[in-house]
Each structure stands twice: as C-alpha cells, then as structure tokens.
C-alpha cells in the first residue's frame, strides 16, 4: 500500500474514532435528557401544585375561615339581642363586626385574585367560581346596615313588634350568610384535599418511574464510560496534571511529544499553567515590590546619607586616634562602629537592589559554562562551611548537549549564588550540595539540591516572599531577588522537596533560538 493509501486509512481511522465519540456522547445526552426532562417535569408540576397551595389556596382558606368566624359571631349576637339589657353597646359591637366583615370580604376577594394569578387554567376557573360565590354572599349582606339601624330605632321608641320583625329578618340574613360561607369553606377544603391527593399520587408514581429511568441512564453511562476509557486512555495523564494544578502546582512539566489532539492539548495546558503561574506570581510580587520600592526610597533618603557622613567621620576619627596613640580598647570600639555602619550600608543596598533591579541584558550564551564558573567561585566559601559541592552538566558531563540560553550573566550569577547560600544555611552541620545543568524541552534547567531538614508546607508557600526568613538574621530578600531575576529573564524558579530529604531549587531559563546561537569557529 502506498503512502497516500496509508494516510487515507489513518484519516479514516481518526474520523471513525471521532464518530464513535460523538455517537457515545449523543446516546448519553439523550438518556440523560429523557431522565432530566422527566425529573424536571415532575418537579415543576409538584412545585406548581405547592405554589398553588401555599400562595393561592391556603390564603383563600384562611381568609374565608376568618370571615366565617366573624359571621358566626354576628349570628350569635343577633340571636342574643332580645335578652340584651344595654342595646347601645350591642349596636356598637354589631357595627364593629359588620365593618370587620366588610374588610375581611375585601381581603378574601384579593386572595382569590391572587389565586387566579398563581394557578393554572383549572385553578383560575375555580377561582372565578369562588369569587362568584363570595360576591353572592356579600350581596346577601347588602341590607344589614339598614336593618340594624331600624332595629335599634325600634328599640329606642319601644316598639316590640317592630323589633321582633327586624330581628327575624336580621337573624335570617346572618344565618343564611353563615351557611353560604360554610359551604364556600367546604368547597375550598375539598379542592385543596383533591389537589394534595393528586400531588401525592403523582409523587408515588414518579418514584419508581424515575428510578427506572435513572438505572437505564446509569447503565448507558457506564457503558459509554468504559467505551470512552478505551478510546481516551491517554487523557488520564492530562487529567492527573489538571488535578495537580488545581492543588496549586503551577510548575510547568515536560510534555511527551505526540502528533495528535491529546498531545496538543497537553502542550497547550502546560503553556497555560506556565502563563497563569507567572501572571499570579508577578501580580503578587509586583504588589510587594511596590511597597519595597517605597521603603527603599525612604531608606535611601533617611539612612544612606547619614551613614555616609558617619563613615567619613569615622575615617577622620581613625586618623586622629592613630596619630595620638590611643588605647587598643578605643580602637576596638571604633572598629565595631565601623562594622555596624558597613552592615547598615549593605542592608540599604540590599533593599535598593530589590526595588531597582536593572533590566537584564539578554545574550545567547553557554549557561553550562557560566554555572561552572559560579560553582568554582563559591566552592571555597562552601568548603569553609564544611560543605562539598558537586556539579553535573548534561548527560555526558561536558555540557555539549546543553543548548545556549538567553541570560544576563551578572544577574544569573547573583541569583545562583543566592540559592547556593540558602542551601549552605540549610545544612549548618555540613554535607553535600548537588548542582546540575541540563536541557529540558525548550528550557535549560539548573538544579540545586541540598540535604538539609527540608521545609514545611507553610514555609514552602512563603519562601519567595519579601522579608520572609526562618533565620534569626538576614533581610529575607535573597530568594525574592532570585525570583525577580529569573522571571525578568522569562524563566521560572521553583522550590520542591528533594527525594530522600532536603530541598531542590529548580531554575528554568529559555533556550536561545538557532539564529541567535554564537557561531563556532
């Protein structure tokens, strides 16, 4: 088979995989949509019924119940009027209750209007019927005020026959109104009971039906999951990486090259992690370094100028004391003052170095050779501290397989010395520091491993913060300056626990492009 045939077959294979994935997702979505739709419909109907009961029927039932109670009281008072000794107080009570009844009637009508607003078509039709019944009840009370007025007028003139006639009419009207309201109450209660029963029956039917649909959906999901796992097994590595990033690991990892969608996804994800981590670090660092800049300016104005004057006066004083042959104790005191002034000058310079780090002058150069020189420079200092420093470059140790990198030699020297001195301070009893340089994808990586006691999670999260230090002395700016230098180079510095104990610092710098590599002679 020729190359074109192989390519067509591979394309067809990829298309078949894509089609299978699409069909699998479609089947899952259809099953889920059926279940979700049924569940949503059941929940909506239940919610609608609950809303009708809570916001519609219950207020109507309460208001009609109140109206019925008021009407019952009125009917009882009318029945007791013949035995009343004080007609005036009875009249006031009747007029008050009829006024309450009118207000309650209006409130009941408003509740029925709200029932029409929240109910379905059946409920709206029922609400209209209930409103009609309530209007009929209210119409039956149209002549109550006139009857009450005539009744108590007859009381005033002492016409007992007229009083009895009016009492018969008023009592018949009040008792008839009570019967109407009782019938209306029973009507509402019966409708509420029917609605509640229908809702409960629907819920009982929905449970087994929903369980069956859920089981079918689960079976479809399991089948699709098994099928997709076979097809997309390489995505597990990307998923694990995403989980690590979610836990806060924003250190870019090497990606296995693959000429497919999954490989492209992994590479794009790592680029995103790098961009997010760098943006987050820069945002935090910029805020803190802005505060340091203000402090450095204040230090420059308030400390450096007086220190210069003090240093000059100390030199003059040393010359004066040297000419007059003063005691050794006075010279020792003067030397102590000189050392403290120098320490303060170094401290102010440290602050200024953080706030005013110059822009690096990037050049394509041999980073392995630069690291070799830096290690040679730091070796006597480490040996005085009882430490051994070991250097490994590339795979063969000669550095030929390490590509050139873009860096400012002076600044990278300062950054690497800060990291090695941090490793020295982590091993006060001596030990070994391992430094290595190797290529890693599009970066050159410098590793500095110590065998100290390691760092806790709390210290790890703050180790690059300005002014943070676990030592009793020092400014806490060394690692801050290191990160500032590396990130200004477009690189990344990270601190990780070392396997077997200790800490590993990892500095990544971008490699130089082929066009910028120095020509070999």
* Number of strand elements: 7
Name the beta content range: 5-15%
Envelope shape: elongated
Query: Class by helix and strand content?
Result: alpha+beta
Mean pLDDT: 76
The order of strands across the largest sheet is 2-4-5-7-6
Order of helices and strands: HHHHHHHHEHEEHEEHHEE
Low-confidence stretches: 1-17, 515-521
- Radius of gyration of CA atoms, rounded to a whole number: 46 Å
List strands and helices in order, with pairings:
Layout: H1 3-80, H2 87-118, H3 121-140, H4 144-157, H5 160-231, H6 235-246, H7 261-324, H8 328-355, E1 363-365, H9 367-384, E2 387-393, E3 405-407, H10 409-426, E4 431-440, E5 443-449, H11 457-462, H12 478-488, E6 492-497, E7 503-510
Parallel strand pairs: 2-4
Antiparallel strand pairs: 1-3, 4-5, 5-7, 6-7
Helix pairs in contact: 1-2, 1-5, 2-3, 2-4, 3-5, 4-5, 6-7, 7-8, 9-10, 10-12
Descriptive terms for the model:
521 residues, alpha+beta, five-stranded mixed beta sheet, 12 helices, disordered N terminus, disordered C terminus
Briefly, what is this?
It contains 12 helices and 7 strands. It is an alpha+beta fold and 521 residues long.
Would you kindly provide a written description of the structure presented here, covering whatever features stand out?
The protein has 521 residues and is an alpha+beta fold. The protein has twelve helices and seven strands. The strands form two sheets. The chain has a five-stranded mixed beta sheet with strand order 2-4-5-7-6. It has a two-stranded antiparallel ribbon with strand order 1-3. Helix 7 packs antiparallel against helix 8.
